[in-house]
Amino acid sequence: MTTSAFTLNVRLDNVAVVSIDVPGEKVNTLKAEFAAQARAILKQIRENKVLQGVVFISAKADNFIAGADINMIGRCQSAQEAETLARQGQQLMAEIQALPVPVIAAIHGACLGGGLEMALACHRRICTDDVKTVLGLPEVQLGLLPGSGGTQRLPRLVGVSTALDMILTGKQLRARQALKTGLVDDVVPQTILLEAAVELAKKDRLAQRTLPVRERILAGALGRALLFRLVRKKTAQKTQGNYPATERIIDVIETGLAQGSGSGYDAEACGFRRAGDDASIAGAA
User: Fold this and answer.
1) To the nearest 10°, the Cα dihedral for 170, 174, 180, 183?
2) The pLDDT value given to residue 277
3) Contact 86, 270 (CB under 8 A)
4) Residue 278: per-residue pLDDT
5) Is the pLDDT of residue 5 over 60?
6) What is the mean pLDDT of the chain?
7) d(Cα 269, Cα 188) in Å, to the nearest integer?
8) Which domains are assigned to the chain?
9) What is the pTM of this model?
C-alpha cells in the first residue's frame, strides 16, 4: 500500500492539520498520484461537521512544496495529456478553496510553482521570516505557465501588474516582500508557525484585502487595456518571440480578467496544452 503524502490530524480545538510529507523524498513536490490522496483528505474534512478550520503545513524541514514534479510533466505523451494534467490540478485547488471552513497555508521554506498554487487556493497564507522561505511561480523559466489556477488567483490577490511581474519573470519573493504585496497575511518565527496558523483558522473568513489604488485603476477596463498593451510591447522586445510561454501567460491572465475566472481557467489549461507541443516539456524532463 502506497503511503500518502498527506496526513490528517484533528486537534482537540477542532482544527484539522494536514501535514504534507512526500515519502522517501527530501523535498515535497506535487505528483499526479497525489490528487486522489488529497481528495480523500478533503472528503474527511467536508464530512467532519465540527471542524473550525484547516491548516496545511509541511512536515519537511525546510520546504512547503517546491513545485510540481518535472518528470510528471515530461511523461505527458501528448498535448491533450498536458491539458488533462492542468485540469486535474485546477479541480483539486478548487476543492480546497470550496471547503466550508477557513483554510490556512502555513508556509516555511520553498513555496513554488504548484506549491504556491495550492497556497493560493487556501483562504489565507502565513509564512515564516526564515531566509529559506521564498514564494513564486517559476514555470516560465521552464517554458511553461502555471497550470493549477495560479494565473487566475494571483492577479485577484495581489493585483494584475504585480502578478504579471511575478509570473512573467518567475520572480521569487522573500517573506517580507510577500507580506508587502499581500501574497501572505502574516509573517512569524518558525517556532510559532503552526499555532499562529491555527489561531487564524479559528477566525471567521476575513474580508478580502483592498488592493492599492494603482492596482485598482489597472483592474478597470481602460487601465487594463493600457497595461496589457505595454506589457506585450516590453515582453516582445525582451524575448524577440523566442519564449512563447510569456505570450501565453499574458493572454491567459487577460482572458481571466476580461471574461471571468471560468474562461481564465479554460484558457490556462489550453495554454498548458499548447506547452505540450513545445520541445520545452521534453527538455524539462
Assistant:
1) 60
2) 63
3) no
4) 60
5) yes
6) 90
7) 35
8) 1-285 (3.90.226.10)
9) 0.92
